[in-house]
Amino acid sequence: MEVIERALETLRGNGTAIKPDMPSLLDAQLAKGETYGLVGADLLAFALHGTVVSPYFDRHPRVRAVLQEPEKHPYAETVARWTQPDWEAIARESIQYQ
Fold this sequence. Notes:
- The protein has 98 residues and is an all-alpha fold.
- It has one domain.
- Helices cover 64% and strands 0% of the residues.
- The protein is built from six helices and no strands.
- Helix 1 packs across helix 2, helix 1 packs across helix 3 and helix 2 crosses helix 3.
């Protein structure tokens, strides 16, 4: 629950409106992130992305490539270099991976 509160604080800090279902969405994304072996900052970033970008963003080929080799490419460090247009494309393209 502590991680969910941290995630909600991050979202509030970024000006995101917190919807009533957001804690359960974050919880689902945290569970999914754990299946990829993510922990700490990587897990938090993953859950936030799954909540605000798309719940299916992890199926996008670009994201999958990062998730497949976390020891070589830490998730949070790698995706921090992606631009807003990169994330918009991932969000748009993730619809096909539902």
